[in-house]
Amino acid sequence: MKRIILIFLSLFFPFSIVGAMSSENFSIEKDVIGSFGNQSTSENFNLGDTGGEVATGSSGSENYDLLAGFWHMLGDYIISISCPANLTMSNIIGSGQSDLSGNSATCNVFTDNPAGYSLFWKASTVGMVSTGNPSDIIGAYSPSQVDVAENWSVGASDSEWGAHLGSASVTVDTDFWGTLDSYLAGKWLNIKTTDFQIAQRTSKTSTSGDDEVFWFGAEVGSTKIQPSGTYVVDVTITAITL
In this predicted model, what pLDDT tens digit does every residue of 102-151 receive, in sequence order? Predict the structure, then answer.
């Protein structure tokens, strides 16, 4: 009897908004040296004013935005990320690899922050867990060097799943992830249960945002007895402004 392995991922996409200036040792939320000013309110209005500042206002270029002046500093930059809710990976019948043709998901990241953003992923569990029996698991991919993506390799007695940041992604580091999206030519990594940075951009995006393509793979080794069923894991993709 052939064993059929169904693999299902849920993708989540929290986002963060950051506007304060900071470094490793300090953080300046906002400050000003002026002649006068304060916040005042009435029943119908709020007023924030400062006197004594010069050359205030908004300006920008292709790569930078300048918000000069105390009240401009109070505005936060925007960041957003959108991903498909779910991804059903192709089946594995018996043993072998899940066909990659349907195993990708594209997330779009937008920010007007001139410093850019970092992109992270994490999994809800180390392995993919069977919905029928929680003790049946497809383990996490095991690279030969921790946190270093590599060409796919799963032992005959193992079953593993992993992920790859696609070559079409706007922020992809092809030295780390490879230039092709395949098991043998692409570079793959496990997804930990803690946030792991997979990409970074050091400038704002275009108005259409950055498309980031995620590929997911799985394999049941030729001598591995993997019970039939549906295996699931939740993957969270997070974008944070720099």
Answer: 899 999 999 988 889 999 999 999 999 999 999 999 999 999 999 999 99
Within 13 Å, how many C-alpha atoms sit on residue 241's CB side? 20
> In 82-161, where does DSSP find H-type helix?
none
User: ∠64-68-70 over CA atoms, to 5°?
Assistant: 135
Residue 211, both tokens:
């498309």
Per-position DSSP letters for 51-69, written without gaps between them: ES--S-EEEE-SS-EEEES
- Of all residues in the chain, what percent are helix, strand and coil, respectively (each to 5)? 5, 45, 50
Q: What residues does each domain of the chain span?
A: 4-18+79-241, 21-73
pTM of the predicted model as reported, rounded to 2 decimal places? 0.74
Residues of the chain with pLDDT under 50: 1-2, 15-20
* 96-97 vs 36-41, strand pairing mode: unpaired
